[in-house]
Specification:
alpha+beta, two-stranded parallel sheet, 24% strand, 68 residues
Length: 68
C-alpha cells in the first residue's frame, strides 16, 4: 500500500495504527516506509491518576518513519 501511494504521488502517508508489538513483516514494512520517506506513525498517550504513559511503535518501524 505504501509503495502504491508513493507512486501515485502521496505527499504524506499517515497511519492511525499503533504498531506497538513486533509482527511478521515488520522488516518489509520498515523498508517500504524508508523508501517512501513520507510515512508518519501515531502514538498513544495515557494518563492514569498521577502517572503518564507514552506508548510508541516498535523501534524498527519508528526508526523507518519520517515522524512519530
Amino acid at each position: 500500500m505504501i509503495d502504491n501511494l508513493s507512486q501515485a504521488g502521496a505527499i504524506v502517508i499517515g497511519f492511525d495504527i499503533l504498531f506497538s508489538e513486533k509482527a511478521t513483516g515488520d522488516t518489509a514494512l520498515a523498508a517500504s516506509m524508508k523508501k517512501s520517506g513520507n510515512v508518519v506513525l501515531g502514538l498513544s498517550f495515557e494518563r492514569s491518576g498521577n502517572e503518564e504513559n507514552l506508548l510508541l511503535p516498535v523501534k524498527t518501524l519508528a526508526d523507518a518513519a519520517t515522524s512519530v
